[in-house]
Amino acid sequence: MRKTCPTTAFVLLVCAVGAFAQTVERAEALWRAHDYEGANNEFKALVAAHPQNADYRVRWGNLFYERFNATEAGNLYQEALKIDPKNARALLGMAQLLGDNYDAKANDFAAQALESDPKLYQAHELMAKVALEDDNQKKAESEADAALAIQPDAVDAIAVKASIDLLADKESPWVAKIGNRGKGYETIAYFYVINRRYEEGIQFYRKAIAATPDLFSAHSQLGINLMRLGREDEAKKELDLAYENHFRDAATANSLTLIDSYKKFDTFRTPTTVLRLNKKEEDVLRPYFQEEMLRAMATYEKKYKFKLNVPLQIEVYPDHDDFAVRTAGLPGLGGILGVTFNGIIAMDSPSGRPPGSFHWATTMWHEMSHAYVLSLTNERMPRWFTEGLAVHEETAATGHSDWGDRLSPEIIAAIRDKKLLPVADIDRGFVHPTYPSQVIVSYYQAGKICDYISERWGESKLLDIIHEFAKNRPTVDVIRDQLGMEPEAFDKDFLAMIDKETGKTVAGFTEWTKQVRELNQLAKDGKNDEVIAKGRAIEGLYPDYVEAGNVYTFIADACLKKDDKACAIEELGRYSKVGGRDPDTVKKYGKLLADAGRPKEAAAALERLNFIFPQDAELHDRLGNLLLETGDAPGAIVEFQALIAMHPIDVAGSHYNLARAYKAAGRKDQAREEAVSALEAAPNFKPAQKLLLEVTSEGEK
Amino acid sequence: MNWKTLVLCVAAASPAFGATYILTVAGLGGEPDYEQRFTMLATDTDKILRAGGQTDRIVETLKGADATRAKVEAALNRIASQAKPQDAFVLMMIGHGTFDGTEYKFNLPGPDLSATELAGLLNKIPAGRQLVVDMTSSSGGAASVLKKENRTVITATKSGMEKNATVFARYWVEALRDPAADVDKNETISALEAFQYAEKKTAQFYSEQKRLATEHPQIDDQQRAAAFPLLKFGSASAVVTDPAKRELIAKKDDIENKIDALKYQKSLMAPDDYKKQLTGLLLELARAQEAIDK
């Protein structure tokens, strides 16, 4: 470039400005013409020629941002900020990127952008959106007004104001002001969706498309939300349309892949349930999932005094990435295991996670609580109460104190550091977490609030609160009216309860950590008596800890090394009762009980594993035999059927066991069929031969 | 011909089996956890093999500091001098192995033992039926060197390039003590049954742990492995030698052959017809067995 220009400084400047205009125009023309590669090359050349120009980098970053490459966009914005720390557009770019990920720091960058350029109304719009995501309507309103004061036609500000009204079930004069700008309707749709009001979201995505037919982001989101509600044919059409028109973000591409993968699933229907399972695991999972679904439905119908008017659908994904596609773009889903879209629940399969790390039945009951409560309230429930109630039900409704989540080190740290939020603000912890574990901590806190309300005001108070929220009332009003106290007073009492319940663990956590390290060393040194003594002394300090390196297992192992099985049984009993879920440890406990002549307790111990990791042939084999031994032939049938569904190594033995269970249940014809199957695999299997003769009628013999 | 028929044929054609020499070697662990694990697996194997006090089984186990190259060589040379052609020989190798792209080495305390050196030692053993189960990392790199006409070679990995520590040995030992491994219920665990058990459990381990499988067990001859009894329990062959029931046994063999033939035709038959015929034959077989057992 320099070679073609005269050498005076003035001419150089003119030349440079001219080159900028020409090249940027060309880059952006290519961009508009969907020649993204060409535009990228133009920007690349421009930045290479002008390495100190922050604006070029920001514009190039904007191209990446629009083309779904947030990493490159972020790098370019950061580079621009290194050159010009107050570059308002770069700061806005960073705010947008962070806002897309529900990162609380988005606000900070937007505020800095406004300091650099007070007329940058888009920064006010972004802050308005972030505030509304937090359900902070007052701030959302004021930021939207600030944007409109600078730019009266600012479409996102108008859409935020419209959303505030619409979410409160009010008519909004702001909707009409959007006019034919699809982007505004798309923003409203977005707010409906993140408030789990999917049907209304879909309506507004349709409206966005009607206003701006080539708004392919809206086509994509319409497709994704139709898919969430199980309307896959139309969803696929919309997603295909977006994809074919160059809108190929990860959510669009992955959703299309997911829809294609549905051919790997089978759907099982009853009058009230729809269960979609992957073909490779449906035979094993179906009985357990179906039974729990029906049990949960019966429980919730009674508890919430409400019946769903459509069959409840549960989809179970063995591949976590498939499940993750269902949740993409939604807030508050860190480490999520299940998600509910109206009457459709999508969740991980137990096979999607390492054995022992996931209690699928807890997740199912949690999500089913959502399905009932959101339907009952027509989706008018704050996030914190919906989640808190579902966490509460994991143990309260299921009747199993060992289900649900345990008090984790992250939660202990949050309590210790006084990071629990006031009840009025707790939604913020779900949507815009300010530290990595805040979503998990918020689930815990919301669950504990519901436990506390149940304990102090009675379980029925929770239902009263549900009905109040159904009227679309804010949290502070509901707390005042239903609990008869100010939210601040509630917070004080609640924290006192938390302190009473967890104070010993929180205060002793550092010491406990140190002691467990010492326990580990004692175990390595084979000092069994000391392991038992020390372990017993500290296990009460943090009884909820049942993960790797837990005290219960150290003690039980030391007991076994001393050949003291009674001691090991006692310790593993504690481990199981408090919610320990490692399959090998629980199976060890079951075997010790069985060997000690306690088959009923052994069966009960192993039955817990069916809700954790049912894809375990050894579990079904052992449990089936224990149930048969204790006279529960129908239970044994279920277990041996599951065993056969897992294509076990011992085909003959498995069919023979099922034949025995059928025989014990008085189902001779099925016993005979299974005996034949056993003998087909191993014709000389004597016990199966004997059984075949026993269940064959005299005439046939 | 299916496996069952083949096994019967081999059994019928073979003269009375001689002794079985079994050498188990647990190599160098390198770190306490592995050392403990390898020693424990070798100890368990030794215990299982010695249980029942079968005199036709000569068991030797080298582990820990004893598992040196000199002692392995001495043990193999001893077997070479004692075994006869009608005998069987089993070598089980537990531990770590290495492969440099050319040569596999079994890691032992002190000097390692290469596949070529091991093959040389094994080739001196006159036992007519041999089984080598190399369960170390990189063991696939030894397979082609150890291969021999009368020898079945099982390796934990498909090539020398699978270099991570293996879990196959754990499940191989489990197969020896789990009656479920005896899939044909003939009260004998064959080399093939043990292999298939351990192979399935190994694959399951990686799948459940959501880990990329870093070992893919291999067997060079399934037919020969099916006919190689590793462990017998119960009274498997007692009836076969009872002359008083020869007629019943002949009848039973005839029914078994019919069942094999029917199973071979299964895919060509209507399911109901197959099931009816199968049930009839299985009932006949069960009645014949009942009469034999009286």
Could you explain how this protein is built, in words?
The complex is a heterodimer of chains A (701) and B (294). Chain A has 701 residues and is mostly helical. In chain A, 68% of the residues lie in helices and 4% in strands. Among the domains of chain A are: 1-118, Alpha Horseshoe (Serine Threonine Protein Phosphatase 5, Tetratricopeptide repeat); 264-484, Orthogonal Bundle (Neutral Protease, domain 2), CATH 1.10.390.10. Chain A has a five-stranded mixed β-sheet. In chain A, strand 4 and strand 5 (344-348) form a beta hairpin. Residues 1-20 of chain A have low confidence and may be disordered. Chain B is an alpha/beta fold and 294 residues long. Chain B has two domains: 3-232, Rossmann fold (3-Layer(aba) Sandwich); 239-293. Helices cover 45% and strands 16% of the residues of chain B. Chain B contains ten helices and eleven strands. Chain B starts with a helix and ends with a helix. At the A-B interface, helix 33, helix 34 and helix 35 of A face helix 7, helix 9 and helix 10 of B.
Distance between the termini of chain B: 32 Å
Q: H/E order of the elements of chain B?
A: HEHEHEEEEHEHEHEHEHEHH
Kindly state the number of beta strands of chain A.
5
Helical content of chain B (DSSP H or I, runs of 4+): 40-55%
In whole angstroms, the N-to-C terminal distance of chain A is 100 Å
Helix tally of chain B?
Answer: 10
CATH architecture of the largest domain in chain B: 3-Layer(aba) Sandwich
- Looking at how many chains there are and whether they match, the oligomeric state comes to heterodimer
CATH class call of the largest domain in chain B:
Alpha Beta
Strand order of the largest sheet of chain A: 1-2-3-5-4
Counted up, domains of chain B total: 2
**What about the largest sheet of chain B?**
6 strands, mixed
What is the beta-strand fraction of chain A?
under 5%
- What is the CATH fold-level name of the largest domain in chain B? Rossmann fold
Low-confidence segments of chain A = 1-20
